[in-house]
Specification:
By secondary structure, the chain is α+β, with helices and mostly antiparallel strands. It has helices at about 40-55, 60-75, 95-105, and strands spanning about 15-20, 85-90, 115, 120-125. A four-stranded antiparallel beta sheet has the order 2-1-4-3, sandwiched between helices. The model has no long low-confidence stretch (mean pLDDT about 95).
Length: about 130
């Protein structure tokens, strides 16, 4: 390979997510609550409840609709106003546990709970 060859750019990643912050999150406040007081266990239970709701959906279109509805109403991330859509992002742009989870998913697949410094997430990979 010539040293003049351009490196191949990695494609961007894309995901929607639902974030449940807790009192131990790096910034325990959100657009929904000035001060988040729920415990990590309560945040995990909330996320598990959302996963149970999503498991009832029969098609990916229904799952995406439900995911967006839940994100819009309950996510502690400002992406809630975009139904949880983080848009396209580069490798290395997100916290490592989050990025690792996105990379491990197939497009339209939903993660198990993912813990980061921000809180506990459910992730739907979109690209």
């Amino acid at each position: 390979e010539s040293r003049w060859d351009q490196p191949t750019a990695q494609p961007k990643l894309g995901a929607w997510h639902i974030l449940a912050k807790h009192q131990g999150s790096r910034r325990p406040s959100s657009w929904r609550e000035e001060t988040i007081t729920r415990s990590k266990d309560d945040a995990r239970a909330q996320i598990e409840g959302f996963l149970a709701e999503l498991a009832q959906c029969e098609s990916i279109d229904e799952k995406r609709r439900k995911f967006g509805d839940i994100a819009q109403q309950y996510s502690d991330c400002s992406s809630a106003k975009r139904r949880g859509d983080l848009g396209p992002f580069d490798y290395g742009a997100m916290q490592k546990p989050f990025e690792d989870a996105v990379v491990a998913l197939q497009v339209n697949e939903i993660s198990k709970p993912v813990e980061t410094d921000s809180g506990i997430h459910i992730i739907l990979r979109t690209q």
